[in-house]
Amino acid sequence: MQFGIFSVGDVTPDPTTGRTPTERERIKAMVAIALKAEEVGLDVFATGEHHNPPFVPSSPTTMLGYIAARTERLILSTSTTLITTNDPVKIAEDFAMLQHLADGRVDLMMGRGNTGPVYPWFGQDIREGINLAIENYALLHRLWREDVVDWEGRFRSPLQGFTSTPRPLDGVPPFVWHGSIRSPQIAEQAAYYGDGFFHNNIFWPADHTKRMVELYRTRYAHYGHGTPEQAIVGLGGQVFMRKNSQDAVREFRPYFDVAPVYGHGPSLEEFMEQTPLTVGSPQQVIEKTLSFREYAGDYQRQLFLMDHAGLPLKTVLEQIDLLGEEVVPVLREEFAKGRPANVPDAPTHASLLAGTRKETVA
Description:
The protein is an alpha/beta fold. It is built from 13 helices and 13 strands. Strand 8, helix 6 (184-193) and strand 9 form a beta-alpha-beta unit. It is globular, with a radius of gyration of 20 Å. The mean pLDDT is 94.
C-alpha cells in the first residue's frame, strides 16, 4: 500500500490566534508539508486544484514541479484535477511534462470539484458537469495513447491530426484515479477504463463509502479488467493526534468547530462517530484506519488530510512526524497481513512500464 498526504490548500484563520496566513505563507507551507512527507517515509503528496478564495493551489503542476526538484522518492499527485473546466489537451501536456521532470513520479486524480462558480469562469455550464467529465476524459485518454488524434465532441473545438507534446515518459501515461464523493457515474467511468477509484472518505459514513467502492469493483470486473478484488481503490481520511487522546481532542476542537466545510454543525464527538475522522492517540488512528478495510476491502492507497482548518504549519509537521514514526509503519505491517496474493500493489510508473513490456513480449 501507499500512504501519504492530501491537501486542499485552504487559507483559513487560526481560530486560536485570529491570524490568517498570507497566500505566500500557505503555498510555502504546502511545500514544507510535502518535503516532510518524504522525510518521514511517506509515499505520496497530493494537492488540490481550486480557482477561488480561500484556496491557493490554482496551478498544481507548478507546485508539483517545484516539489519534484526537491525530492527523490515522493510520488506527486493531485487530489483534484478539474477534468470539467480544464482543457484536456492542456492536462495531457502539463502532466506529461511533469512526468518527464519528475522521472515518472507522477499520477493524478480526476474530479469535478465542489465550487459551482468555477464553471462559468472557464466557459462551461455546471449542469453539464458529468457530461464534461466523461467527454473530456475520453479525449485525454486518447491523447496519451495515440500519437495522432482526430477528435470532435460537444465541449471543445475539433482536433485534426493533433499530437500532444511531450509524449508520455517511456510511452506510459500517468496513472489516473477518478475521485468522487457521491457520483456513481464517476465510479462507472473509473471502472470502464480500468483506472483507479478514490473516495475522499472525509464527510460520509462507512455504508456510503462501501456502496461506492463495491459499485466500482463490480463494474471493474464487468469490463474485463480483473476480479473485483483486483480493482485499484484509494481512500482519504482525516486525523489529528497527540500522545494523549484527551490532549488531541482539546487542541483540535476549536479548529473543528469553525472548519470551512464541516464547522458549525455536529459536535466533534458526533462527527467522529459518524465519519472516518479520528482525533486521539496514534493507536486510535491505527485502529480506525485499519477498520477501513472492513468496508473497502484490500485497497492500494491511503491519504490523510492534515493541514485543514487553519492548523499552524508547526502543528501539521508534528502530526506528520507522528504519522511517519508511529502510525504508518504499523499500518504497513497490519494491512499486509492476510492480503491475498491476487490483490495488486498500487500502480507506479515502474510497474506500469514493466506491464507494458510484458504485453509487448507476449
